[in-house]
Amino acid sequence: MTGQTEGKRRRAVRPVDKFDERRDQLAESALLTLGELGYARASLREIANNSPFTHGVVHYYFADKLELVIYSVRYYKARCVTRYDSVVQESTTADELIERFAARLAQTIHEEAPMHRLWYDLRTQSMFEPELREAVAQIDAELQNMIWRVVSRYAELAGREPALAPAVNYGMLDGLFQLALLAYHPAGDDALTQLADEVRAVMPTLLAAPRST
Amino acid sequence: MTGQTEGKRRRAVRPVDKFDERRDQLAESALLTLGELGYARASLREIANNSPFTHGVVHYYFADKLELVIYSVRYYKARCVTRYDSVVQESTTADELIERFAARLAQTIHEEAPMHRLWYDLRTQSMFEPELREAVAQIDAELQNMIWRVVSRYAELAGREPALAPAVNYGMLDGLFQLALLAYHPAGDDALTQLADEVRAVMPTLLAAPRST
DNA sequence: CAATTGTCTTGACGATCGTCAAGAGTTTGT
DNA sequence: ACAAACTCTTGACGATCGTCAAGACAATTG
Known about the structure:
Two copies of one chain form a homodimer. Chain A is mainly alpha-helical. The first copy, chain A, is built from ten helices and no strands. The N and C termini of chain A lie far apart (63 Å). The A-B interface holds A 37-41, 117, 120-121, 123-128, 133, 136, 140, 163-165, 167-168, 170-176, 178-179, 181-182, 185-186, 194, 198, 201-202, 205-206 and B 37-41, 117, 120-121, 123-128, 133, 136, 140, 163-165, 167-168, 170-176, 178-179, 181-182, 185-186, 194, 198, 201-202, 205-206. Chain A binds a DNA duplex through residues 4, 8, 11, 13, 18-19, 22, 43-45, 53-57, 59-60, 64-65.
């Protein structure tokens, strides 16, 4: 039944596995359509049409639609969780970190809005489709770590301690990000400058009082 | 073509419009299935099956699926935006308001999780389906006002001013709420007590320094 | 070079979807 | 009580979906 995908992988011959290469290429193509139409509306045929492949190839490399979608989003998020690492590493003052962080948040909405829409779509669908939950939970945890690295470094540069738990920081910033993404759609950059303003206002409230150690 | 819905309404005979009554009944039934399966997976036949009506009636009272869904969610949210009014009106101290607010947030997740899942589903789908945006934006604005009433009253009781704009308060609290809803699914009340803890920790950070007027 | 394995194309299947239309049943108005 | 308007049932339509299978084509292996 699901013998397809299993059957091909057991040939660990190639040093760089050609099988996984194709899966990555398919994922990259699929992300275009998925980001544009969302999870429910993006059919496998449409995904294949917007790619150099045919719809049969999709089922050759992926057992079903869910496997393709999960693989694709994982493929994207794997790169995306390092987006703010440069902000963390290169900022030398707390204010600079805030500025660079806010700018990068706005930038990624501007440049990769469809990907973020897809992510929130998938996360929401995971509330209805149990098979999505494991992958979503894992990605969510990585995003939370990503935010925590930013806040921790920010606190460090400010000479203070983070006032709230990692999950709280992530939840609040993610909420702001999501509203900005929602408002961004009608092609108004106002939502982005507003997001930057909001981040500037919020970040200081995430710190505890100056430490006395 | 769309003569159905238009044709029936022009009989403003009844004092309480029987037409709108049926629409409300259909909405109430539809919310059950929509909340359980989500927007994409809930077919009109399934919605009708979980109701005292047949699937033809749905198209008699609603032009298409979108009109039904929008009407249903509006129907629900109209009641839901007043959920915290009692918290605002009856709390006499800032701490009491926080406790009642946190308890009510957890309570509504516990009692109406499917409805909230549906709302976030619809809001996410609005990023892909332009026809949903107007209704979603309007509901979102009402929710923001709802949160703003809570925060304003909280600040008043604390003798301080809200430190952040209404949109920021809403975005952050909505982010926390959404994560709690997401984590609630595996039937763990941990997510709810955790949400209450988070709210208790966050609320004070939403206020500016004590006023000196 | 022959043969096995891997890769891909093509076309079809059953299922399900939103929508619609014809007509039966019911209520309302006169 | 008759006719008109409203309400609802039933069944069908075209379209589209995920999935699968048979076979062509290409690559690799012995």
